[in-house]
Design goal:
alpha+beta; four-stranded antiparallel beta sheet; 13% helix
């Protein structure tokens, strides 16, 4: 990408590497104001099968079935205040 192309590009989101409890690697973050998770496609059957699936993230639930807003508030959220704490890869 040339220097002029870099200057014309507009960031639409950010992603971070993450690992699930069972050890699966995935990406999580925010794209166009929506929290998303990105998983590799498990079985690529043809060349036209996508390599990754992008899913809208849903709030986590506690054991009592209530949305755990404290966990969701900071999860995957990107803004200027925390840009130095969480650097996209």
């Amino acid at each position: 990408m040339s220097e002029s192309e870099k200057m014309e590009s507009e960031r639409i989101g950010v992603l971070w590497k993450a690992k699930s409890k069972n050890g699966m690697e995935y990406l999580k973050g925010e794209v166009l104001g929506e929290r998303v998770v990105v998983f590799p496609t498990k079985e690529k059957r043809t060349e036209s099968t996508p390599d990754y699936q992008v899913l809208k993230s849903v709030p986590t639930r506690t054991d009592k079935g209530k949305v755990d807003e404290d966990k969701q508030q900071d999860k995957g959220k990107y803004n200027d205040k925390n840009k130095d704490k969480r650097t996209p890869f």
